[in-house]
Amino acid sequence: MTNRKPCQLILALDLETREEALAMLDQLGNSLDWVKIGLQLFTAYGPDFVREVSDRGYHVFLDLKLHDIPNTVAKAVQSIAKLPVELLTLHASGGAEMLEWANKARNDHAPDLNLLAVTVLTSMNESQLRSLNVQATPEAQVTHLAELSLKAGIQGLVCSSLELPPLRKQFGPDPIIVTPGIRPAGSSADEQKRIMTPKDAAAAGSSYIVVGRPILKAPSPAEAAEAIRAELT
Ligand SMILES: O=c1ccn([C@@H]2O[C@H](COP(=O)(O)O)[C@@H](O)[C@H]2O)c(=O)[nH]1
């Protein structure tokens, strides 16, 4: 028995234009509490778009996957602290010093912001890790990077739901664990390699699942989102 909160759905709002994105949010209405703004819309519309989504009442997850020298990442966290963002990603592979500097900037400027360390992208499998000269399995590499990140003080992790059992066993119920690579049964995996259904991800201990194309490309995005939410309860 754990005191873990119920798993929540985050929509990955990966669309081309502001107009398309806002129309999608209009369609989804009450099916949604959380919106992830990623590189596509942030590079096109920047902080104003973040404020616009937040002004509509959504919790905002800004998925910029920061990865640079410690000073540059810390300064970026300081800038993002001025925005209505509750979750922000950075790459764990930037290393302990980068993570510590980012966390200090968060503590100094945005203590309500939760930083999430991206471990191994869900689009990667073991052979892709080998091509980067990483000899570990995805599970071992995720666990290693998770340990590094949590030791550096980072509040949460991004990984595949497949890695949830060992992570929850080692780190317990407290770390926020966000899992993309979610595919309802029978839907296309696209380029995602380490996938799970919403139901299984929730049961395995995901704090939040991230879903993009299975909702965005569905004939009825609102029905698709509702069906996914129903799997989480
Ligand atoms: O390891 C990761 C980290 C982030 N993502 C992001 O999640 C969504 C997934 O979109 P789908 O359309 O559901 O595949 C996307 O914005 C990625 O940038 C991830 O997939 N894997």
From TrEMBL:
Domain Orotidine 5'-phosphate decarboxylase, chain residue ranges per copy: 8-228
Binding site for substrate: 14, 36, 63-72, 122, 183, 192, 212-213
Any one of the GO BP annotations: 'de novo' UMP biosynthetic process
Cited InterPro entries: Aldolase_TIM, OMPdecase, OMPdecase_AS, OMPdecase_bac, OMPdeCOase_dom, RibuloseP-bd_barrel
Active-site residues, record numbering mapped to chain: D63 (for ompdecase activity), K65 (proton donor), K65 (for ompdecase activity), D68 (for ompdecase activity)
EC number of the protein: 4.1.1.23
Keywords: Decarboxylase, Lyase, Pyrimidine biosynthesis
UniProt pathway annotation: Pyrimidine metabolism; UMP biosynthesis via de novo pathway; UMP from orotate: step 2/2
Pfam family, one: OMPdecase
SUPFAM superfamilies per record: Ribulose-phoshate binding barrel
Keyword Oxidoreductase: no
Enzyme class: lyase
Superkingdom: Bacteria
Iron recorded as keyword: no
UniProt GO molecular function: orotidine-5'-phosphate decarboxylase activity
Annotated catalysed reactions: orotidine 5'-phosphate + H(+) = UMP + CO2
GO CC annotation, single: cytosol
Entry function: Catalyzes the decarboxylation of orotidine 5'-monophosphate (OMP) to uridine 5'-monophosphate (UMP).
Family stated for the protein in its record: Belongs to the OMP decarboxylase family. Type 1 subfamily.
Subunit structure: Homodimer.
Full protein name: Orotidine 5'-phosphate decarboxylase
Organism, scientific name: Coraliomargarita sinensis
